[in-house]
Amino acid sequence: MKLPYAEPYKIKVVEKLYRSTQEERTKWLKDANYNLFNLKSEQVFIDCLTDSGTGAMSDEQWAEMMRGDESYAGSRSFVKLKNTVQKITGYKYFLPTHQGRAAENVLFSALVKEGDIIPGNTHFDTTKGHIEFRKAHAIDCTINEAFDTSVYHPFKGNVDLKKLEKVFKENPKEKIPFIVVTITCNSAGGQPVSMENVKGISKLCKEYGIPLYFDSARFAENAYFIKKREKGYENKTIKEIALELFSYGDGMTMSAKKDGLVNMGGFIALNDEKVYKEATVYNIMFEGFITYGGMNGRDMGALAVGLDEATEFDYLESRIEQVAYLGQRLADFGVPVQQPFGGHAIFLDANKFVPTIPQEEFRAWSLAMELYIIGGIRGVEIGTILADRDPDTRENRFPELEFVRLAIPRRTYTNHHMDYIAVALKNIFDTRANAKHGYRIIDEAPIMRHFTVKMAKI
């Protein structure tokens, strides 16, 4: 008999969870203005709001925390992190930041001007927010297959090269400071980008003289999918795949709270000295000195270890297979989800789950509320609320896909928690015909409204 799979780690510390009642959750949600971001952590039983900074660190990372050098300039923890980043990415220049959106803020401050156009594969909320805040425009060039959750495509995060070339042809080169490729593509359902596609993007960028940057929050998960799904990479290590992938680009931003396996941190890595020098100005203005950039020495040390651990196959297999386990349980129940399953999360297709709720009443938001009430499970809407308003017309943007994302923290929950989530969703799915009305906005911020928006039930 073949031995069953077992996680390549054991649990050393546990944290108690409070089992609330449906009545309590209903009241808490109303008090939170029907925004899951406003809930207190103790009011949540299973927290799938994000996989960003919510994972468990290893004993080696905690040991490195104790060795942290908190020198303001020239810290040895900085040197260790810089060397690790250079080894994994191959990029010459390195700037630490306190998290991914800070890296975007620093880099985009140096490169993005009003009226610019930044193509990419379904930019995530902070990326698009930083672009539009600067009165520039994000252009989605993702392949069409990404927008049909029932279609199987091994790399739904891929950029459509014809769409991308159309953007290049129709706009002056000086208006396109770079293209950003998100690996894996979060907003499309945690979907990977193939090495073949990255090569094609790189070739096109070189032809038109446009730099290629990666939003690399989940680059290790992307490398895992390349190893498992793309011919010619099955015998390569994750580190070898990552190094090749980054070689086709000019630089990257990184939210280290994902594939860095830390609770806080980020960085920029580049090959262009001119861009690096421009970015250092903003790094000092917004983050701190260039050898700490908003991070403690101990956090930089833990990140160096985390990047090394996250680019090992055994860890990635455990992490991604747990996500797939939840996805398969839901698929077996008939619950509509983005397939194939993503690397960091399961994305519920609210268009198919609750088509009875009008899109203008925010059906994905409504589904996320119901999941919390029924099971105490906190997910997040990746739909009309997150899509925000058009910066020119101020009308709501209605995306093709209305998702509820269930992001799974790394090395945190067991498969029994996955079973609990699956059954809670099955119970909601079985009664979905009763869902007739959603929510309306009563107060919102002018940009990235989903974090603080106040809603009311219709």
Strand order of the largest sheet: 2-8-7-6-5
**Helix/strand order:** HEHHEHEHEHEHEHHEEHHHEHHEEHEHEE
Label the structural class.
Answer: alpha/beta
> What do we call the CATH homologous superfamily of the largest domain?
Type I PLP-dependent aspartate aminotransferase-like (Major domain)
Q: What share of the residues lie within helices?
A: 25-40%
Individual helix count:
16
Global Rg: 21 Å
Can you count the beta strands?
14
CATH class of the largest domain: Alpha Beta
Mean pLDDT: 96
Give an overview in words.
This protein is an alpha/beta fold. The protein folds into two domains: 22-51 and 313-457, Aspartate Aminotransferase, domain 1 (Alpha-Beta Complex); 59-310, Aspartate Aminotransferase, domain 2. 40% of the residues lie in helices and 12% in strands. It has 16 helices and 14 strands. The chain has helices at residues 22-31, 59-66, 76-89, 100-111, 125-133, 161-170, 195-208, 219-229, 238-247, 273-286, 297-310, 313-332, 350-353, 363-375, 384-387, 415-430, and strands at residues 46-47, 93-97, 117-120, 137-140, 179-182, 212-215, 251-255, 266-270, 345-349, 377-378, 380-382, 403-407, 439-443, 454-457. Strand 3, helix 5 (125-133) and strand 4 (137-140) form a beta-alpha-beta unit. Helix 6 packs parallel to helix 7 (195-208). It starts with 21 loop residues before the first helix and ends with a strand.
Supply the key terms.
458 residues; Aspartate Aminotransferase, domain 2; 12% strand; 5-stranded mixed beta sheet; 3-stranded antiparallel beta sheet; alpha/beta; Aspartate Aminotransferase, domain 1; 2 domains
